[in-house]
Amino acid sequence: MASTSTAPPAGPTHPVIFTTKTQYVLPSQKFMVPLAWRRYHLSQLVNRALSLPSPVPFDFLVQGEILRGTLQEWMVERGVGPEETLEVEYVESVLPPTKAAERKSEDWEAGVTCAVPGHFATASYDGHIRVFDYAHFQTAKHTARIHPAPITSLHVVPLQSTSSDEEQTYTILTSSHDLTARLSTLSLSPNSPKPTTTKTLASLHLHTAPVSHVTVSQDGSTVLTSSWDTLIGVWDTRIPPSDEVPDDAPDGERKKRRKLAKSGEEEKVVRKVPTAVLKSHTNRVSAAAFLPGSNEKAASVGFDATVRTWDVENGLCTHTITAPEKPFLALAMHSTNNAFAASTDRNVSLFDLRSAASAPLLSLPHPATPSCLALPLAAASHPGNPDNGGGGNENQLISGAYDGVVRLWDVRSTRVALASMRMWEAGDKVLSVDWRGEVVAVAGEGGVGVWRVGRQ
Amino acid sequence: MAVSEVTNGRKKRKQADAEPEVVKSTFPETVGLELPSDEEEGEDESDDGEVEEFPEIDARSDSEDDAEDGSDDEEEDEDEEDDEDEEDEEEDDSVSDSTSDAGVFPKPKTIVSDITGQPKRVYPDIEPDYDSDSSTEDDPNRIGNVPLHWYDDMPHIGYNINGRRVLRPALGDELDKFLSTVEDPQAWQSAFDKNAQMDKPLTGEELDLIRRLQAGENPDGDYNPYEPTVEWFTGKGKEEVMPLSAAPEPKRRWLASKWEKKKIMKIVRAIRLGRIVPSKPKATDGKHFYDIWTEAPSEHAPPLPAPKPSLPTHSESYNPPAEYLPAEEERKKWQEAEPEDREQDYLPQKYSALRLVPAYDRFIKERFNRQLDLYLAPRIQRKKLNIDPESLIPKLPSPSSLKPFPNYKSLKVAHTEGRTRCVSVSPDGSWVVSGDEGGNLILWEVIVGRAVKRWKLDGKIGTVEWCPRTDVAFFVVGTEEKLQFFVPPNLPRAVLSLTQSILAPATLPPPTPSSIKWTSSFSSGENEALLTIELSSGSGLPKQFAWHRKGDYLASVSTNESQGGVWVHQLSRRHSQAPFKKIKGTVQLVQFHPSKPHFFVATQRYVRLYNLAEQKLLKTLMPGIRWISSMDVHPSGDHVIVGGYDRKLCWFDLELSDKPYKILRYHTRAIRSLQFHPTYPLFASSSDDGSIQIFHARVYNDLMTDPLIVPLKILRGHEVKDGLGVLQVKWVPRQPWLVSAGADGSAMVWCS
User: Where is this region: Disordered (chain A) (predicted)?
Assistant: First the structure.
């Protein structure tokens, strides 16, 4: 057989059938593979069998699980007998991520997004958002103070961007400790020397405690803000012509602001009220997210150790998963029914939103508190394209933790992360990650970093 | 007896000629007793030995013949037994009187005999047909006169005339018997007839007989115990003129017995000589029996059993195998060694036969040693402790079953200047404020750890405490001789205005006479204290604050002040007062009771509990700690933990005792801080050894159940600096998280 001729057979062999969903298809044939082989040997075997011009590394899934050690070890662990024919699926391997750029910043960066093509936007604890060019990463292209208090999250509203040759405009959502979230516009003109500008359009007034997270539906129409005061606010992205809620600031402050406004620095910020309030959590809400492809259903997690599913339109909590001893910090929707949630017991757990069972489908253990999660989104090549799913890596997840390491996980291999990206020395926390295409943006205590992940 | 009767009979016969009526009435009675004894055997043959149906043969039918025969016999014996007759005579009369016939037999007819001319009784003839014979009657039992007990163990009760087995009729069990007695009113007067194997009703006469026997009466119904005296020998014409016997009166009638006299004299002599003491108490008088329980048990240990001698080995045999025999050098070595150093106290010897074995040469020596042993070394019974060490460990639930509790360090906030001395968590569990000795005060989020605001104060920060009210948000910081009240940033409008109205009200309440000065700053700036309370000069650094649960009263303890340094500040009245005029010892800590108007004051050695409403001392807890460092009251208010610089942690159950319920010595250095979790059954203690220990402390509502204290986790992470470790620990409300401040200048959050 082909396999036996490529490598010297060492020890017992095992019948293996290779399948794949990639473009590199082997003929359906049973191979006798030595049990001592690891991923590298199998990858070489596939490469040679296909006689590829340039070597393509592959990962091998045995019964839905990524092969980590030798086949022998796997078989011993699973108790698979020597007579069974193994069906091994191979996928293109994830290359070890490479650090593209890194930048120290003065203050902690609580939010990062790479939804703006060619740029990053970060939100900082000093209340500023900063826009970076891929090319000039060390200096911020634009800095704007959006909030008077620390910003906790940042989001770019999809489908609300206009682009022309000289100017691109994006709508940005930020949430802050000043009890509000704000809608701002970011105008970029990458091809012209015209400076980048931001303009705060509206502030969302509901919460009586810091807003922990803000998110927007994929069609860009509905915004969810989650706050420490146990509430989730539902908002539209329409900018009202006038204040919907009166300013309750004392006179002195208002005067001061008016004075500022007179000087022309401050633009008019319209105060918006929510269209609905989702009220069911009993403790701080950490994050909320819309279910994929929907702007009516959402999920949220909180410090009360629950994952709640909401009917946003009616403002009802439709389902609650109570996971005791797991105060949640972050949420990422994996598919319509499954959600990843990071909790302070150092696990990222996958929950089935339909079942009431508190036991997660799987848990990804971390050595430190995981603080943020990101699922692959398509590259922000075209901002109007809300394409979900990075294509082929729907089993992957990125999590940032307080030990300064961003980990790339594969759902099929829960014990160890596929790859680790150490941003900073231990102790500098990762607070936000974003993943578009091959680019992973990481923000945290130490600054901002960019990594390249995946195929090249 | 028989003799006397016969003599009577003879006399009677003599008189019978004269008085035939008298003979008729007396004769059968005297003889009736005598005759059945002769004829009993005959009776037995015919009657199957049944005692109760004792058919009496009428004695009168042949009494005369018998009596005459008897008298003939008696004539010869008479002389010999004369003496006794005289003595027994009276008895015989009474006996003969008592016996009489039951009279259930065919009535005799009295006719005059043709031969003798005497009247005689004639019985009706027994006709020799089947009916006359009782054995041929319609008897249900046809087994013959066989003793029934022969067949006791058999299923049958005998054989009938044809040699067939007669089966035992079925007898009911006890229940049937009972039922039959209930149904049959006559059941009580029936008896079991063995021959018939069934219950037969008793006749009236039989019942009467039974009744008499039961009552101890004479069985004869006709017996009259009070019959008139029959004067046999007295009365007119009956005087005895001649003696009955011609024998001379024996000498013994008037001489005292010589032998009796000898016997008596022997005793008298013995008494005179004192050999017999007449009133001598008996040796066993009253000493035979005694109550073993009245005496206290002996205090001596029971005699010790001798140690078991070890079994003889091969080498001790008289003919051991060759390999047990010592070689020459071994023998030499043995002989040269001191007796104490020898491994064994004998040398194996080989004899080809047992009879060649000489006498034991060390017999005397060994006896002597044994005696010496007993004399010099009394045996001590060593009790082997056969205790499984595992069983001594109290049964505690495993820590994993008591989750959640903090078990890892989630984040760390660094202070740059000096030790982080104090830390406090906001009542909603979102914010932490920590202060260090350089005067830096940092407000940070619990879960992110980002410093949101920093203040720089003058001098050391002694302590910091959030107000427990949830509708306002401020915290109080203790610096040198000052209490400063700060407001965190980014408050909702309503909370901020309420906080400002409390700390810096627009209209001040009427001033109160107090040496403590309250100053409010009306600028809304968050960088400076909204309210400052200046303690008297020289009071030093406030080292502890305790808020009342309603957030209006704040107790502060300062380090050095002559009167204990305890002040209670009331925010609504802007008034400070010293609750104690004089306190023995330096006050270390104070604490408000969570539900009652009680106040805990810990001095160096004692914890005192005061009732503030009644102004009196309720209790003094004696932890036995040399220097109390920390104290906390359980949220239920019934339990107090006290920690000391001498590493002890005492748990007090206030309902139970003034002495600690439990003393835990788990830290290797001084305990610095203690706190109960407000909602979870947890408490934490921190120490100068750099570790934080988490305990599970479940308190039951049931007063009978003791609190359950389980050590859960030792959290290490703080460094020991200048001999100081973790200076303060505080729980995050609503979450099982712990915030700690260490001498290494860092504050840490420990998450579950």
Answer: 239-267
